[in-house]
Amino acid sequence: MLDRALKFRVSAPGKVILHGEHSVVYGKPALAGPINLRTYFYCKAIDKPCFEINYQNLEYECVITLDNLNLFLKEVNCFNDLEPPMFLYKLREKRDFIYKYVTHEKPVDKICSSIEMAVGVTLYLLNRILKSEGIEVVTKGCKIDINSEISIGAGLGSSASYGVCISAGCYVISQLLKGTVDGKSINEFAFDEKLLTKISKWAFDSEVIMHEKPSGIDNTIATYGDIIKFCKGQEPEKIHLKRPVNIMIVDTAISRSTSRLVAHVAKLQETFPSTLNSIFDAMGNCVDDAVKVLAAEDDEEYEKLASLFTINNNLLRAIDVSHPALEKIFTIAELHGFKAKLTGAGGGGCAIILLPSDYLELNNYANLCDDLTKQHFSWKKTIIGGDGVQFKMIPE
Q1: Is the pLDDT of residue 203 over 60?
Q2: Are residues 164 and 29 both part of a single domain?
Q3: Residue 221 sits in a domain of what CATH number?
Q4: Distances in Å between the alpha carbon of 165 and those of 210, 289, 382?
Q5: If pLDDT is split at 50, 70 and 90, which confidence band does 95 have?
Q6: Which CA distances in Å does 337 have to 305, 368, 386?
Q7: Inter-residue contact 163 to 389 (CB < 8 Å)
Q8: What residues have CB less than 8 Å from 135, skipping those under 6 apart?
Q9: Does 334 lie in the same domain as 193?
Q10: Domain presence at residue 2
Q11: Residue-range definition of the domain harbouring residue 292
C-alpha cells in the first residue's frame, strides 16, 4: 500500500554512441556507453484519488483520476493484446484514444507530438506493468515528477532514459500497491538481473512507440550502464576499459527525428544495397578496432582511437546524416587539433570530441572551448561509463 510518507526516486542515464550509428540497425555491432546526464522519476503518495503527472521539461501537467485509470485498465490491455506498433497506430489514428482518460488544461489539438508521445508511453507502460503484476484496480493516488538533464532529440538517448525511468518507476509503484514491499522493506529494494531484463524490454517497447524501429542499444545502456559492444539479437558484451574515455559533448540545439533519419538511410540502402552494405561493414569494423584500442595498456593507442573517430565520421557523412551545424563543430575541433564525430542518428543533435587524458593541460583545449562558446554551441565535458538505472528512497 502507498504510504503518504513515502517518496522515492528512479534515475537512468543518457548515452553516447562511439561507433556504429545506423549500421547497428542492419545487424552490425555498435559501441556505446552511459554519460553523467540523467532522467529522474520522482514519486510520492498523495491523499487524492488520482495520479498527478508533471513533465517538467515539456512544461506539461496532467491528472488521471483513479476512476479513469481503472477504466483504462479495464478497456485497454497493453499486457496481452495491444502490442507497441498497434498502440502507436491507435495513437496516430485517433488522438483522443488516450486523452479521454486524462485531464489537462490544453485542448487535444494544441498538444505537441513530444507531449503526446510522453503521455502515450507513460500510459502504455503503466497499463502493461500493472496488468503484468495482476493489478486491475488502483485505489491509492500518487504524484509523479519527471525531469531530465538530457536534451531531447539530440542523439543522447533521452527517450530510452525516459522509458527506463517510467518502466522502473511503474514497477516500484506496482509492488507498493500489491504490498510486496512496504515503507520499511522498500529501503532494501534493488533491481536484480531478472528485473533489469524486464525493465530493458519494457523500455524497448516504449522506444518502438516513439521511434518505430529502434536498435535496442539505447534502452540497454540506460538500464545496465557500462560501455558495451552491442549487436541486435545478441547479448551485449561489457567492455572493460584500461583508461577513462574523456569526451566533450557539443549540442547543435537542432532537434531531429530519429525515425525519419533511419527511414532516409533505409531508402538509400534499398536503392544502393551493395554500396550501403559495404559502408555498414566498414562501420562494424570500426567498432571491432575501437574495442581493441580501448583494451590496450599503451596511452599512445589514443591516436588510433582519434583516427577511428575521423574514419567513422566520414562514413556517416557518406550516408548523408550530417548537418551544417555539425560540420561547423567538426571544423572548430580540427582547427585546434581534436577529432570529432556525430553521435546518434545525426541530422543535428550532438557531436562528440575526443579528449586526451592530459587535455586540461593543453592550451588548445581552452581555445576550443572559447571558440565553441563564441559560435553559441553549448558543450559539456564528461567521461563515458557509469551506472545504469538507479533506485533511491528520499527522506521527507
Answers
A1: yes
A2: yes
A3: 3.30.230.10
A4: 15, 33, 22
A5: low
A6: 14, 9, 28
A7: no
A8: 73, 174, 177, 178
A9: no
A10: no
A11: 244-383
Asked whether residue 210 is assigned to any structural domain, the reply reads yes
Taken in order 255, 340, 227, 366, is the CA torsion positive or negative? negative
- pLDDT tens across 152-163, in order? 777 788 999 999
Residues 223 and 260 in one domain: no
Residues 200 and 340 in one domain: no
Taking the C-alpha atoms of residue 378 and residue 369, their distance in angstroms, rounded to an integer, is 10
pTM: 0.82
Q: Are residues 31 and 170 in the same domain?
A: yes
The rounded distance, in Å, linking the Cα atoms of 344 and 347 is 9
Domains held by the chain: number: 2
Give CA–CA dist 230/242, Å, rounded. 19
In whole angstroms, what is the distance from residue 63 CA to residue 95 CA?
17
Residue 261, all three cell numbers? 533519419
- Asked if 112 contacts 118 with a C-beta cutoff of 8 angstroms, the reply is no
Identify the weakest region by mean pLDDT among 14-23, 138-147, 206-215, 274-283: 206-215
Amino acid at 305: L
Cell numbers linked to 331: 571544423
Q: Look up residue 302 and give its three cell numbers.
A: 589514443
Contact by Cβ (8 Å): 216, 15: no
Question: For residue 153, which of 356, 30, 14, 51 has the smallest C-alpha distance?
Answer: 14
pLDDT top residue among 209 and 46: 46
Same domain, 22 and 159: yes
Residue 385, Cβ density class (10 Å: 0-12 exposed, 13-18 middle, ≥19 buried): middle
Q: Give the tens place of pLDDT for each residue, 328-360.
A: 999 999 999 999 999 988 999 899 999 988 888
Taking the C-alpha atoms of residue 256 and residue 94, their distance in angstroms, rounded to an integer, is 24
Residues 68, 27 within the same domain: yes
Contacts of 249 (CB under 8 A, 6+ apart): 16, 35, 156, 343, 350, 351, 352, 379, 380, 381, 382
CATH code of the domain in which 315 resides = 3.30.70.890
The sign one gets for the Cα dihedral 220, 224, 227, 231 is negative
More confident residue, 231 or 315: 315
